[in-house]
Every structure is written in structure tokens, then in C-alpha cells.
Amino acid sequence: MTNLIQPNFIQLQATASSQTGVFQSIADIAVENGIATSAEEIVKGLQAREAQSTTGFQDGFAIPHTQADAVVKPAIVIVRTETGIEWESFDDQPAFFFLSLLIPKSEAGTTHLKALSSLSRVLMDEDKRQELLDAKTNEALAVLIEKAIGEAN
User: Fold this and answer.
1) CA 110/CA 149 separation, integer angstroms
2) pLDDT (tens digit, 9 = 90+) per residue, 73-87?
3) Helix (H) or strand (E) holding 47
4) Is the pTM of this model over 0.85?
5) Distance from C-alpha of 122 to C-alpha of 83, rounded to nearest angstrom
6) How far apart are CA 84 and CA 129, in angstroms?
């Protein structure tokens, strides 16, 4: 699972103020970077997954994810918003740090489960969560995620 995250897959200080806005930001980044061919399909996929059960985690983190035909390569897209957004998180706190996992339908199962499991383990570790929060640049954040995923596998 290399190259799942790159600095240009990250948007710090996003202005999205709703769940749909976050999904649109994720979808736009995905299309701009050749991860996906249709922003609309990504937004619909993220919304459908969220409707099944919340992807809100705790301490402001959420892991929205989807498997879609429009996704051409697996990737992690990160959006960090200026303000918290209601996300039905485990701790009932708003989310502002979104680690979105986008997986091609053809890789559903293997890649999806490994990456999701790795991200979940990272978020359960308080020190690693703090490192993510402290990262000031896209490059620093990408390195932290890549390292964390590498350690988890």
C-alpha cells in the first residue's frame, strides 16, 4: 500500500462547513489528482456509506470512505476544516479532520480493509492522533500517514 497519500491529496484549512461540503472537497481533490474520474460519483459514494453508519471517530477525526467505479487508484485524501462539523462521532464531538479512503471497486475487500484497519489503528493511538493534529504542512502530514500505515502492516 504505497503512494496512497501524497501532499497534493491534502487540503488543510478547508472552508467546508457541512458534511456535503467536506465530501465535495474530497471529491474535487480526487478528480484534480487523477484518483477518480467523477466528483459526483465520489460524493454519492461517501454519502451512501455515511448513511449506513457514521464514519465519525473521536477527538475531531472521521474516516469517510467509499469503493466506487469512478476511483481509478486507491488513495487517502485528507481534508481539515477550520471549524468542526456535526458528524455523529463516537464522542458526540464535531469532526474537523477527515481522512478519506477512496478505493476502486475492483480492489474492494483487500486494499480497502487493510487501509481502513491501518487508519483506525492510527486514530486509536493518542500520540499518533496528536502528531496528525500538530502537522503544519501537507508534506509533514503525508509523511506521518505513510509512516503510520507502513508500521501497521
Assistant:
1) 15
2) 999 999 999 899 999
3) helix 39-52
4) yes
5) 22
6) 16
**Type of residue at 13:** Q
Phi, psi (deg, nearest 5) at residue 103: -130, 135
Strands (E), the chain: 10-14, 61-62, 65-68, 75-85, 95-104
Residue among 74, 65, 78, 79 nearest 36 (CA): 74
In the chain the first and final C-alpha atoms are separated, in Å, by 9
| pLDDT score of 98 more than 80 | yes
Nearest to 46 by CA among 98, 107, 106: 98
- Cell numbers representing residue 19 in the block: 458534511
**Number of neighbours of residue 33 by Cβ within 10 angstroms:** 14
> How far is the C-alpha of 23 from the C-alpha of 65, rounded, in Å?
10
Q: How far is residue 97's CA from residue 121's CA, in Å, rounded to a whole number?
A: 16
Nearest one of 37, 35, 79, 87 to 58, comparing CA atoms: 87
| Set of cell numbers at residue 36 | 477518480
- C-alpha cell, 81: 476544516
